[in-house]
UniProtKB/TrEMBL annotation:
The lineage of its organism: Bacteria, Candidatus Portnoyibacteriota. It comes from Candidatus Portnoybacteria bacterium RIFCSPHIGHO2_01_FULL_40_12b. The chain crosses the membrane at residues 58-79. Keywords: Membrane, Transmembrane, Transmembrane helix. The keyword Membrane applies. It comes from the Bacteria. This is DUF11 domain-containing protein.
Length: 624
């Protein structure tokens, strides 16, 4: 506070003073200088006491330890750099053709390089050639090559060759594996890579020799040639032909192995050729083009894969004298034994001039023909040559056929029943009718032109599949028991027999189906025991999976038979009645010759058992 104010308080009675904030220092001359020197000495003393001998020893030892650790870390780092291994620094690649023709030789260059600082030992290359490749001297598509050690930074390569086989536009993949052991460790490592080549062409050639033009109904011959132009062999080849509508194949050399359009070529050697000779007839409208297609390939997983294809066409032209025919109003008819075939023959003068002295003939062929049933509307029949003839003598309008004039004639004939099956070769019956129209005196403008017309029609005969269902109480295959006549509340067992027969064509996928009524029990007794009979207790369905059924079964060989046992326990509702044992039996199967499914059925069987001659009719009625 100021001096004047202090004086006022000092001389004022009862005045109060505040407490002193700090103790006053005694002033002495030179005191401040001593204080500074004292602080400097204290700091100096502290510095001197930190580096004691003991502490100096500790710090010295600590420094040595840290130095050793540092040197160890540096050493380990250097050693690790010299001894560690990274497989990604070993490179592996395949070089080869990206596109080639099937059968051409591919040269694969496999390059490998050691980009590490460690020598690679026990180096081995495993090479996987593309599937279906062909190699010289071996058929093994996996090849192992032992290689020399590969030094640090060193590279090398291997060349391998193969002929590549494949489908057009397919990818053929090669794979390489490089196995090795770094010299500094005992572990083995492996690197791998792949390379793909595209097949852009297949050197298999197909060539048709077809006429440019044909008249409808005309018979003609043609060939199909196949040629392997590659430098490798092709294995297990298969050839398939697709015919146009209206074409009927009469003969082929060699014969097809399946249906009428599939041939097994087998192995086709390099440079080899082959030829198929065919003969048939063609029906069509004037100007219509008929295309024939051929494919050469292999079966892969039961699917045909084409290597080479060709399509060629011929044109239907109308001859001056045109003729066509149908049987039972269709051009492609499937006949049955005992059936009547009704032929209609249409003829026409397609020119703008009259044609004299027309003759029409129909030549019938086939063992299945019952010629005694032949019925001619007009015309005459030569039984020796099986030839029907129409001319001006029995059909006056054929004496002069006016321009664009047309007409129709016909006849009918029956198919034999039974078919003439004497040996196992008597199968796949056909009936062929070849109709020709011509003139003894063609007009002068047509002298140098083939004016005749021709039509051939082939009728294939379907096989006859038959199912017979029979019931027995007394049977030599399965022993039955229970009261006869059946009694209410008591169980009686019966034997059911299925018998299959087949006439003229081989059948496949044959099966028999029937249903057991709810009151009938399945006893699970089957003869022969190995037959594939399946019973569904939920639905009552019974199925016999027969499979293939050869022609002449039941004619030259015994019927195909399955027997099984069922039982009934009649209730009051059955009293005085016959009890059904099995419902209608239905057999189906595919005719391998005509390519259609056949069907047959037989009536249900009840306890009347008409096929069991040891019991009387009244023995089937339920009694008390």
């Amino acid at each position: 506070m100021e001096l004047e104010e202090l004086k006022r308080k000092l001389y004022k009675p009862g005045a109060e003073f505040e407490e002193r904030l700090k103790e006053p220092e005694i002033f002495k001359p030179g005191r401040e200088k001593e204080k500074i020197k004292l602080e400097q000495w204290q700091k100096t003393e502290k510095k001197k006491t930190f580096f004691t001998p003991k502490r100096k020893t500790y710090l010295f030892r600590l420094g040595i330890g840290l130095g050793v650790v540092f040197l160890i870390i540096i050493g380990l780092t250097i050693w690790r750099g010299l001894t560690s291994f990274d497989k990604n620094k070993v490179s592996l690649e395949i070089l080869g053709p990206e596109r080639l023709v099937s059968g051409d030789e591919a040269v694969y260059t496999i390059k490998y390089k050691n980009n590490t600082k460690i020598v690679l030992k026990e180096v081995k290359l495993i090479f996987y050639y593309p599937s279906e490749s062909q190699l010289q001297g071996t058929g093994d598509l996996i090849q192992t090559v032992d290689l020399d050690n590969l030094g640090a930074g060193e590279e090398n390569k291997v060349e391998l060759k193969a002929r590549i086989i494949g489908l057009k536009d397919s990818k053929k993949t090669a794979k390489a594996k490089l196995s090795y052991r770094p010299s500094t460790i005992n572990s083995h490592f492996e690197n791998e890579t792949e390379f793909s080549t595209e097949i852009f062409s297949v050197p298999l050639v197909l060539d048709f020799d077809l006429p440019d033009r044909l008249t409808s109904g005309q018979s003609f011959s043609f060939t199909l040639e196949y040629h392997n132009q590659a430098q490798v062999d092709f294995k297990d080849l298969r050839l398939e032909l697709e015919y146009p509508a209206g074409f009927n194949l009469k003969s082929a050399e060699p014969l097809p192995v399946e249906r009428d359009n599939i041939w097994s070529i087998g192995d086709l050697m390099s440079g080899a050729k082959g030829k198929i000779f065919l003969n048939g007839t063609i029906e069509g409208q004037e100007g219509e083009r008929k295309s024939f297609q051929a494919k050469l390939g292999v079966l892969k997983d039961n699917q045909f894969v084409s290597y080479a294809e060709i399509i060629e066409a011929l044109q239907i032209s109308v001859s001056p004298l045109f003729v066509s025919q149908t049987v039972n109003d269709v051009a492609n008819y499937i006949g049955k034994a005992g059936e009547i075939l009704k032929y209609k023959i249409k003829y026409k003068n397609t020119t703008d001039m009259s044609i004299n002295e027309i003759i029409i003939t129909a030549h019938l062929e086939g063992q299945a023909l019952d010629l005694s049933s032949l019925n001619l509307e007009k015309g005459s029949f030569d039984g020796v040559n099986q030839l029907i003839t129409w001319n001006a003598g029995n059909l006056p309008e054929l004496g002069l056929l006016e321009p664009y004039k047309e007409g129709e004639i016909g006849f009918s004939v029956k198919i034999k029943k039974p078919l003439p099956i004497k040996t196992y070769n008597d199968k796949n019956f056909i009936i062929t009718n070849t109709v020709k129209i011509d003139s003894f005196k063609p007009p002068l403008p047509l002298i140098n032109i083939q004016i005749k017309g021709e039509s051939e029609l082939v009728v294939k005969i379907a096989s006859e599949l038959a199912i017979r269902a029979k019931g027995f109480f007394r049977d030599d295959l399965i022993q039955n028991s229970g009261p006869l006549p059946p009694k209410i509340g008591q169980t009686t067992t019966y034997t059911i027999k299925w018998q299959l027969s087949n006439t003229s064509n081989d059948l496949k996928n044959v099966k028999v189906i029937a249903y057991l009524p709810p009151h009938v029990q399945w006893m699970n007794k089957i003869e022969p025991a190995g037959f594939d009979l399946k019973y569904n207790s939920q639905t009552g369905q019974l199925v016999w999976f027969v499979g293939d059924l050869p022609s002449a079964t039941g004619i030259l060989s015994p019927v195909k038979q399955a027997a099984f046992q069922v039982s009934i326990t009649p209730g009051l509702a059955h009293l005085g009645k016959l009890v059904e044992l099995i419902g209608q039996s239905r057999a189906t199967g595919q005719d391998s010759f005509i390519g259609l499914e056949l069907e047959s059925s037989d009536k249900p069987i009840d306890t009347d058992l008409p096929d069991d001659l040891t019991i009387k009719s009244r023995d089937g009625t339920v009694v008390e």
